Amino acid sequence: MSREWWETVTDRIFLKEVYKDVGKHLDNGKVLDIGVEYYNSVCKELIDNENVEYWQLDPNKTSNTNDGFLGCTMQEAVSKYPLQKNSFDVIFDIGVFCWNGTRFSQTSQKEYVENILSLLKDGSVWILHGDSIEDDPEYMVDFEKTIYPHFDLIDFMGYKQIETITCPTHGTVWEVRFLRKK
Length: 182
Description:
Layout: H1 2-8, H2 10-25, E1 29-34, H3 43-47, E2 52-57, E3 68-70, H4 77-80, E4 88-94, H5 106-119, E5 120-130, H6 143-147, E6 151-153, E7 162-166, E8 173-181
């Protein structure tokens, strides 16, 4: 099923190419993928670069298809794994932050972004994918306040700073942001 997911789900068809391009982009490096789901079992394969370490982070699930694992929430990552500070070249955030199924308070969003900043090396990239349909002000992401003071939107490997993907069947709209740590 995990292979089929990457071939049939609209946003995953796009993201599959992003994973592949990250593998081509990094000569050596370390990638963190936030969240563990059954379809993530092929992400290391998609990156397809034996010189790139593929790590995952999840508080509730584990996986054996990675090179390293952080068993925590993003908000706990640096306090629980201080040796991982400034160690990642790319962080994939696919459907966690900015996702309608996960709600983070303004305080929790700040902690989340602070931990992303701490885990990334200077000048490294956060690939943020979400649907941003939240309408409660306590849980809405204020990009100008929370993210853009710390990250620049960048064109990345032929992708626009913000790529918009629309599902032709259901009309769901996703955005993928390519953000470089300042």
